[in-house]
Design brief:
single chain, alpha+beta, seven-stranded antiparallel sheet, 10 helices, 11 strands
């Protein structure tokens, strides 16, 4: 049975901490922040697909992601556990400025081999699990952030990854109109490609088909509506789902919990460092 927590420090805005245990699922996450994932021990690992590559992460391994990237995370036979730190873009770039680094921040390679960052992330997770006070966790988080920004794989001079212009236009269309009905034919016409060629180019660039990308955008939007106290039914309509039951089925497949449970967890723990949301 999957379990876990999402935590936020009341004194630190724009950063979330996810601890997930007993993971036996396959799920795609469309990142809206900079993230660092470390696999927790003692035995099982996870498979991550990102930027067209598949990688097995054993305990202690770290994987990075930029905003807008898709990560597919899957367990293989044995329940796994992992910890993710999410920095909103403005937060990490502000930290880079404080540390004397140029912005914007880029990850040249998501496959991070830093034992130092792995240890720092695990130390942070343990501090959160012990329920240390926020004033004690903040310097640990600062150390993780400094370590991340100092990695050779995260220099500010790395240029943005360039997408085929046609794929870039399709991504903009989907982001701007994710709640609308957008067909593969619509996107192909907009990019002036045959729909089969467009679909192949999109999947090669993004890692998932256009309809799945749009579905993840809807789920992300619904999650944020729920956290702000919007009802399940209204969140469904605002995010492009047919109705509340449609959102509920999709949300449970995505994160393993109902949208109502997610919303109740966010409301009942608003303003505190811990928000348990991922138990099923």
């Amino acid at each position: 049975m999957q379990s876990g927590r999402i935590e936020r420090l009341p004194t630190v805005l724009g950063v979330e901490f996810w601890t997930v245990r007993d993971w036996l699922r396959e799920s795609s996450l469309l990142q809206e922040a900079f993230t660092a994932l470390v696999v927790l021990g003692p035995t099982a690992g996870v498979h991550v697909s990102q930027r067209g590559k598949q990688r097995f992460l054993p305990p202690g391994a770290v994987q990075l992601a930029e905003p807008g990237e898709v990560q597919h995370i899957a367990a293989r036979g044995e329940a796994a556990a992992f910890f993710i730190v999410w920095w909103q873009p403005g937060v990490l770039e502000a930290a880079a400025g404080e540390f004397g680094l140029d912005t914007p921040v880029r990850f040249a390679d998501p496959e991070c081999e830093s034992a130092k960052l792995s240890r720092a992330l695990q130390t942070l997770q343990q501090a959160l699990e012990r329920r240390d006070e926020a004033y004690a966790i903040e310097p640990v988080l600062a150390g993780v952030t400094r370590c991340l920004l100092g990695l050779p794989c995260a220099p500010a001079s790395v240029p943005p990854r360039r997408l085929h212009p046609n794929v870039g236009r399709a991504l903009e269309r989907l982001r701007d109109g994710f709640a609308e009905r957008i067909s593969l034919d619509d996107l192909a016409r907009e990019t002036r490609l045959s729909k089969f060629h467009f679909a192949r180019c999109f999947r090669e660039a993004v890692g998932i088909p256009p309809h799945q990308y749009q579905h993840l955008l809807r789920l992300q939007a619904a999650r944020r509506h729920l956290e702000r106290g919007v009802s399940v039914e209204e969140s469904a309509v605002l995010s492009g789902f047919a109705d509340g039951p449609h959102l509920s089925r999709s949300f449970r497949r995505w994160l393993g919990v109902s949208p109502g449970s997610w919303a109740r967890g966010a409301r009942s723990h608003a303003g505190t460092p811990e928000t348990p949301l991922l138990s099923t």
